[in-house]
C-alpha cells in the first residue's frame, strides 16, 4: 500500500516498539519493595496502568507539568488503594522509576525483525513524547538505537504529539517531505491524527485493543508492517 511512495518511516517508541507496560511492571517489581511498599504488584498495576494513561493524556494536552505527571500518577494510585505513603517516599519512587525504567529492554514481538526488514530500503526515525533523558537510553539498552537516523522528542520540539510542530521538526531534520513519510504508532490521537494533520501517511499499531476506525490502516502485530512496506 505504501511501498511505492514511502522513503522515510517514523516510529513512536513507547507502546509501539518498546514494550512499555512489561518494562514498567519489571521496574515496579524491583522498586516497590525497595521502598517498603507491601501492595501486591498485580493490584498496584491494575490501578496504575489506566491511571498512567490518563495522566499522560493530561501531560500531552499541556494540562500538567512533567513533575506533576511523575508525582500525581503515583499519588493517585496510592490514594485509590487507600495505602498511606508520604510525599517524600512518592518522590523517591518516582525518581527511582525514571532511573531504572530504561534498564529493561523488552521490545514488542518481532520489533527487531521488522527493523531489519525496513532498514535497507527506508530511512527510519523516532518521534516520541517520552522524556528526553531516558528515551535514548531505552533505544541504546534495547540494542536498536543505530537503526534510526533521527530521534525527535517532545522536549526537543517544545510541544508534544499531536501538535504539528513536532512532526514538522521531524520532517525538517530528516530532510523529507510529508507525502513520502509514514508514521507508525499506538495512539490514535497523538500518532495517527497528529501525523495526518501534518500531511504524513499513518499506520496504527493497535497495542490497546481499540475499535477499528477509518483514519488509517490498523495492525495488531508489528510483523504486519511487511504487508504495507
UniProtKB/TrEMBL annotation:
Native source species: Maribacter chungangensis
EC number: 3.1.3.5
Keyword terms: Hydrolase
PANTHER family: PTHR47478, PYRIMIDINE 5'-NUCLEOTIDASE YJJG
GO molecular function, one term: 5'-nucleotidase activity
InterPro entries, alphabetized: HAD-like_sf, HAD-SF_hydro_IA, HAD-SF_hydro_IA_YjjG/PynA, HAD_sf, PGP-like_dom2, Pyrimidine_5'-ntase_YjjG
UniProt name for this protein: YjjG family noncanonical pyrimidine nucleotidase
Gene3D superfamilies attached to this UniProt entry: HAD superfamily/HAD-like, Putative phosphatase, domain 2
First-level EC class: hydrolase
Amino acid at each position: 500500500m505504501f511501498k511505492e511512495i514511502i522513503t522515510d518511516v517514523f516510529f513512536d517508541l513507547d507502546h509501539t516498539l518498546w514494550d512499555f507496560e512489561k518494562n514498567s511492571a519489571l521496574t515496579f517489581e524491583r522498586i516497590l519493595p525497595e521502598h517498603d511498599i507491601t501492595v501486591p504488584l498485580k493490584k498496584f498495576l491494575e490501578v496504575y496502568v489506566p491511571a498512567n494513561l490518563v495522566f499522560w493524556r493530561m501531560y500531552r494536552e499541556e494540562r500538567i507539568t512533567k513533575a506533576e505527571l511523575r508525582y500525581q500518577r503515583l499519588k493517585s494510585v496510592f490514594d485509590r488503594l487507600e495505602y498511606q505513603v508520604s510525599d517524600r517516599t512518592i518522590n523517591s519512587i518516582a525518581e527511582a522509576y525514571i532511573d531504572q525504567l530504561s534498564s529493561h529492554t523488552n521490545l514488542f514481538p518481532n520489533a527487531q525483525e521488522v527493523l531489519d526488514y525496513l532498514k535497507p530500503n527506508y530511512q527510519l526515525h523516532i518521534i516520541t513524547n517520552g522524556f528526553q533523558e531516558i528515551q535514548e537510553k531505552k533505544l541504546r539498552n534495547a540494542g536498536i538505537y543505530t537503526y534510526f537516523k533521527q530521534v525527535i522528542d517532545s522536549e526537543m520540539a517544545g510541544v508534544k504529539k499531536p501538535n504539528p510542530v513536532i512532526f514538522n521538526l521531524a520532517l525538517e531534520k530528516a530532510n523529507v517531505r510529508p507525502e513520502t513519510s509514514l508514521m507508525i504508532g499506538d495512539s490514535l490521537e497523538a500518532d495517527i491524527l497528529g501525523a495526518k494533520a501534518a500531511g504524513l501517511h499513518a499506520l496504527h499499531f493497535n497495542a490497546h485493543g481499540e475499535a477499528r476506525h477509518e483514519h488509517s490502516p490498523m495492525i495488531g502485530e508489528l510483523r504486519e508492517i511487511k504487508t504495507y512496506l
